[in-house]
């Protein structure tokens, strides 16, 4: 297979050309359908609620950024650097406190002005803990370290963390930190009514949501970030992939989500259509039940990892469009990214040696598998089973219907999972899976490592960059080599089929952004 | 007659109770609504709070007892996915499903029965063989394959009709045809078979021998007698109206009961699933009772026969 190599000059020229094309497409779209054309998106699932604190479903996250803003935002076009949003600027008061100056003249969809009181309410237990402060919300995933919000004046706030927190700014840009309208929330009177008609400051307001049918948005003309580019947005719920692809091919949809690589050819063959997207801030991995007798020895868990030829895997199943990270981390983690951490090796000889040293005698290893919950899941599993067989591991697939069945105890198996970096740091990623309150140790109960837990607890209070890097390196080593809870596969990919003349560039998260801050419009 | 209906009703109630119990146990044992609705990526505390809020943290038998008690009070529960009453969620989907299934049934009747009768009257002719080949093709090709084929031709190639979703008349055509063709094929085969059997009966020969016009023999004697077995199939199809729409609604992204059932089963939204099952059972029972009554109308022997003939069992 020919390898694509580009010089820096070619890369810059390519970037300029694609920017120019995006700008031309933007103008062509506007000229064709007026300045505010309607955008129709074929989406696979209906969000359980369009409320940022309650759910982090992919479907929820695809709608939330249109309706709500955060104080600080990730700039997807600049390596996920932080940029001002509802907060014009911010400054550190100390290791655990941040003063933020809020943007003036911002209005919510109901016309009420945005002030510090809305921020205080958004970060209060009344909002973050969900209905009746029951804790039935996902907000504490990102905001558990926020202690309180102090209102200095209507446009100045101080946010204090529980102890030091190097990630406080990132938390304010992450999931669940969107600002909701206090007045509208109180006027709704109940969570059910609020969820049915949430009010934010985002570029679009909610017009209607019909269970399993569609969600319709209209532009918020007073949006502080510029005029929303689309006159209306309709998310049509189309769970079947074939129906979404047909809708795109028939010209009824402008964008479709969740396109697997085996559909790329059919879509890209049409001159008016293209595939967009790529790797997102998410890692696909295989969870391992450390408590199972067969996996007591970490060498066998490591053998599972080194027996996988990830280069071949990604080439064959993902057309080389997703990278393989070096360890359970992503290159966007800034100072928390350990760039010289060893790459995930493919070493069948080492795998055989580890298997021998672990005293493995060919006992069956169960692989609990869902039917393509993740893209390419089944074909990927079949490929890995063969790779493991070559190395001497006897892995047997056991099909399951849902995660309840996958995680039923005793697990005694390996199974597929994925992890989104909800903020760009080890604490927003691996720690969420493997920390003491994480999925594997707490929810499923199949892994624990006291050293890892201790290091993570320390990391939360450390602000010094070098000290943090030292701790993170050790934590990565534990989960990669010393006591692996998982096998890292590759970065996840999110791909979309779209009309070429629709000016939109997907970001690096599962979130979709159709506002004026999307790169397509920022460029033009 | 009253006893006849009482026995039928009792059987129906026992069937419904068994279906509801079976669905409760299977859905609860095979999946956790908290994980499915909150998502596997939600923090463990949120999942625990969800379970507590919906009473999923109680032992299974207590959940079942609570569920039965609520049903006896006329409360079919709330959708865990939507928060609204399950009855409301289900009721708002009924029109969409009827919008597809009723025209599809009429299509099946209008095409299938005449085709079957005509094929029987032209037995062993080319027309007969052509109708039967079409009928076999109609019910052997799965509806989702046929639906996708129609979309490929009429939506993607020709651009005449929408590929899916709900909207105007144009949106209905492909799903109605997809749903109706299978039914028409089944009816054509049954109508042909029933008609052939009747045409071989002595009273048909007697009618012809008496010098009655062939058309009158067919219309007055053959068709009413052939209608009885065909009616059984029609009754089954009416009873199956909702359940039969599951595949087609998913292929065409049609927001009806079939699609709601699939989504609710996947997310283990038990109250909604049970509500739909009850509705399907009610339609099935209603259709069967109607068919029983129509038998009496079509055949006086059934109307006048003693209910507990023979061994004395009903």
TrEMBL record, chain A:
Location within or outside the cell: Periplasm
BP GO annotations: peptide transport
Primary subcellular site in the record, as a coarse category: periplasm
Top-level taxon: Bacteria
Residue ranges constituting the Solute-binding protein family domain according to the UniProt record: 82-422
Gene Ontology cellular-component annotations: ATP-binding cassette (ABC) transporter complex; outer membrane-bounded periplasmic space
Keywords for this protein: Signal
SUPFAM superfamilies: Periplasmic binding protein-like II (SSF53850)
The UniProt record lists the keyword Ribonucleoprotein: no
Gene3D superfamilies listed in its UniProt record: Dipeptide-binding Protein, Domain 1, Dipeptide-binding Protein, Domain 3, Periplasmic binding protein-like II
Signal sequence annotation: 1-30
Pfam family for this entry, one: SBP_bac_5
UniProt-recorded Gene Ontology molecular function terms: peptide transmembrane transporter activity
InterPro entries given in the database record: Peptide/Ni-bd, SBP_5, SBP_5_dom, TAT_signal
Family membership noted in the UniProt record: Belongs to the bacterial solute-binding protein 5 family.
Name the UniProt record assigns to this protein: Oligopeptide ABC transporter substrate-binding protein
Organism: Mesorhizobium atlanticum
């Amino acid at each position: 297979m020919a390898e694509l190599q580009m010089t820096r000059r070619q890369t810059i020229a390519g970037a300029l050309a694609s920017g120019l094309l995006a700008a031309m497409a933007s103008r062509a779209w506007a000229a064709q359908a007026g300045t505010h054309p309607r955008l129709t998106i074929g989406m696979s699932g209906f969000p359980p609620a369009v409320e940022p604190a309650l759910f982090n479903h992919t479907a929820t996250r695809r709608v939330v950024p249109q309706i709500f803003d955060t104080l600080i935002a990730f700039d997807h076009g600049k390596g996920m650097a932080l940029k001002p949003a509802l907060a014009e600027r911010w400054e550190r008061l100390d290791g655990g406190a941040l003063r933020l100056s809020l943007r003036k003249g911002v209005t919510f969809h109901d016309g009420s002005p945005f002030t510090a009181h809305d921020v205080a309410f958004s970060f209060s237990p009344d909002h973050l803990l969900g209905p009746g402060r029951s804790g039935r919300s996902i907000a504490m995933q990102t905001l558990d370290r926020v202690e309180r919000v102090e209102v200095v004046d209507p446009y100045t706030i101080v946010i204090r963390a529980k102890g030091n927190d190097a990630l406080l700014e990132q938390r304010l840009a992450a999931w669940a930190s969107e600002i909701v309208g206090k007045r509208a929330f109180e006027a709704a009177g109940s969570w059910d009514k609020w969820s049915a008609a949430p009010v934010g400051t985002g570029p679009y307001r909610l017009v209607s949501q019909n269970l399993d049918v569609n969600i319709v948005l209209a532009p918020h003309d007073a949006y502080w970030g510029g005029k929303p580019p689309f006159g209306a947005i309709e998310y049509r719920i189309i769970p079947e992939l074939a129906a979404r692809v047909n809708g795109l091919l028939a010209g009824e949809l402008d964008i479709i989500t969740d396109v697997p690589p085996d559909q790329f050819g059919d879509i890209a063959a049409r001159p008016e259509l293209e595939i967009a997207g790529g790797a997102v801030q998410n890692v696909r991995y295989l969870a391992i039940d450390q408590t199972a007798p067969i996996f007591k020895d970490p060498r066998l868990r490591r053998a599972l990892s080194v027996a996988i030829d990830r280069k071949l895997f990604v080439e064959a199943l993902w057309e080389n469009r997703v990278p393989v990270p070096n360890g359970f981390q992503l290159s966007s983690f800034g100072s928390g990214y350990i760039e010289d951490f060893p790459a995930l090796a493919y070493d069948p000889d080492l795998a055989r040696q580890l298997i021998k040293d672990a005293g493995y005698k060919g006992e069956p290893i169960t692989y609990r598998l869902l039917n393509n919950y993740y893209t390419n899941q089944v074909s990927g599993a079949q490929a890995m089973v063969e790779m493991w067989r070559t190395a001497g591991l006897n892995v047997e697939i056991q099909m399951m219907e849902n995660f309840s069945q996958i995680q039923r105890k005793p697990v005694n198996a390996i199974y597929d999972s994925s992890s989104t970096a909800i903020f760009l740091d080890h604490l927003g990623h691996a720690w969420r899976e493997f920390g003491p309150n994480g999925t594997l140790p707490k929810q499923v109960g199949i892994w624990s490592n006291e050293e890892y837990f201790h290091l993570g607890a320390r990391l939360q209070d450390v602000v010094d960059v070098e000290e943090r890097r030292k701790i993170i390196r050790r934590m990565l080593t534990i989960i990669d080599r010393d006591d692996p809870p998982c096998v890292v596969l590759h970065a996840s990919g999110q791909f979309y089929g779209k009309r070429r003349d629709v000016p939109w560039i997907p970001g690096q998260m599962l979130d979709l952004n159709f506002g004026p801050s999307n790169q397509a419009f920022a460029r033009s | 007659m009253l006893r006849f209906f009482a026995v039928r009703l009792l059987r129906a109630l026992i069937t419904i109770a068994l279906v509801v119990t079976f669905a409760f146990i299977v859905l609860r044992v095979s999946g956790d609504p908290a994980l499915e609705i909150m998502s596997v990526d939600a923090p463990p505390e949120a999942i625990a709070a969800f379970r507590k809020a919906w009473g999923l943290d109680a032992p299974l038998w207590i959940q079942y007892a609570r569920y039965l008690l609520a049903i006896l009070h006329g409360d079919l529960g709330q959708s865990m996915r939507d928060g609204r009453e399950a009855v409301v969620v289900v009721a708002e989907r009924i029109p969409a499903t009827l919008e597809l299934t009723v025209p599809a049934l009429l299509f099946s009747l209008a095409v299938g029965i005449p085709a079957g009768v005509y094929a029987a009257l032209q037995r062993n002719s080319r027309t007969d063989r052509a109708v039967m080949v079409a009928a076999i093709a109609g019910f052997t090709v799965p509806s989702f394959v046929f639906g996708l084929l129609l979309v490929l031709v009429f939506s993607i190639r020709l651009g005449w009709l929408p590929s899916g979703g709900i909207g105007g008349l144009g949106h209905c055509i492909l799903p109605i045809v997809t749903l109706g063709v299978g039914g028409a094929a089944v009816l054509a085969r049954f109508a042909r078979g029933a008609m052939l059997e009747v045409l071989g009966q002595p009273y048909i020969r007697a009618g012809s021998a008496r010098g009655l016009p062939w058309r009158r023999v067919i219309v007055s004697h053959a068709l009413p007698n052939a209608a009885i077995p065909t009616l059984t199939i029609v009754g089954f199809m009416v009873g199956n109206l909702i359940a039969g729409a599951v595949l087609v609604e998913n292929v065409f992204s049609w927001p009806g009961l079939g699609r709601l059932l699939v989504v609710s089963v996947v997310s283990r939204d038990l109250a909604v699933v049970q509500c739909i099952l009850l509705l399907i059972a009610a339609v099935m029972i209603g259709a069967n009772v109607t068919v029983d009554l129509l038998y009496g109308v079509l055949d006086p022997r059934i109307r006048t026969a003693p209910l507990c003939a023979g061994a004395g069992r009903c």
